[in-house]
């Protein structure tokens, strides 16, 4: 059986049997060992090169302070890419797999039917206690419905390095802590159902 066909069947099964039920039941889910170490390393090395070459800029705030960088509220450095840029073949491969996963969710996402995505945001927290205070990715109904995060940190120890993503599911009595583990892919609703924060990082994240 061709590899592409196997991959399609696997992605469709993961979407229908895991991603969709988890999003409806608890509002988020994550997949570990998504790309595998070899391909994950290719993505990591490209992002490291962007960081080394000074291609990342301070993240900006949306809402009333739109376009303003306030490091005490949001400490990441970012770059938006489409995946088709020169040297970004591994990133494009990752984005293609994520696109397929979301596509296979199809009409099973409640009122949503995803037809397109924004560019991908490369983000780096440079340590020194930088994080991102509690916020909602899409508080104003701008069309975004699912946030996907792919983590690239190797040998990350959250007890030592911090940097946990904490989700505050709307109407729930609990919080969900997601560690930024290498080759982990996280999905969650982008709207007011999932306020979240990036806790202070004490190593480059």
UniProtKB/TrEMBL annotation:
GO terms for molecular function: ferrous iron binding; hypoxia-inducible factor-proline dioxygenase activity; L-ascorbic acid binding. The keyword Oxidoreductase applies. It is an enzyme of class 1 (oxidoreductase). The keyword Nucleus applies. Its EC number is 1.14.11.29. Keywords: Dioxygenase, Iron, Metal-binding, Nucleus, Oxidoreductase, Vitamin C. It catalyses: L-prolyl-[hypoxia-inducible factor alpha subunit] + 2-oxoglutarate + O2 = trans-4-hydroxy-L-prolyl-[hypoxia-inducible factor alpha subunit] + succinate + CO2. Its main location: nucleus. GO terms for biological process: cellular response to hypoxia. Residues 116-205 form the Fe2OG dioxygenase domain. It comes from the Eukaryota. Its cofactor is L-ascorbate. InterPro entries: HIF_prolyl_hydroxylases, Oxoglu/Fe-dep_dioxygenase_dom, Pro_4_hyd_alph, Pro_4_hyd_alph_FE2OG_OXY. It is found in: Nucleus. This is hypoxia-inducible factor-proline dioxygenase.
């Amino acid at each position: 059986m061709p590899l592409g066909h196997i991959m399609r069947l696997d992605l469709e099964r993961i979407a229908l049997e895991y991603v969709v039920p988890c999003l409806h039941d608890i509002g988020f889910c994550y997949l570990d060992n998504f790309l595998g170490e070899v391909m994950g390393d290719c993505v990591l090395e490209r992002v490291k090169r962007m960081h080394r070459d000074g291609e990342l800029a301070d993240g900006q705030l949306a809402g009333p302070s739109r376009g303003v960088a306030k490091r005490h509220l949001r400490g990441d450095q970012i770059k938006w890419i489409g995946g088709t840029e020169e040297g970004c073949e591994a990133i494009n491969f990752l984005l293609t797999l994520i696109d397929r996963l979301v596509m296979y969710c199809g009409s099973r996402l409640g009122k949503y039917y995803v037809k397109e995505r924004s560019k991908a945001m490369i983000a780096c927290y440079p340590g020194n206690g930088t994080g991102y205070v509690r916020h909602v990715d899409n508080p104003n109904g701008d069309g975004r419905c699912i946030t996907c995060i792919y983590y690239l940190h190797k040998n990350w120890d959250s007890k030592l390095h911090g940097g946990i993503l904490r989700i505050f599911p709307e109407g729930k009595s609990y919080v969900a802590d997601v560690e930024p583990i290498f080759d982990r892919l996280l999905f969650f609703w982008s709207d007011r159902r999932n306020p979240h924060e990036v806790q202070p990082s004490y190593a480059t994240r």
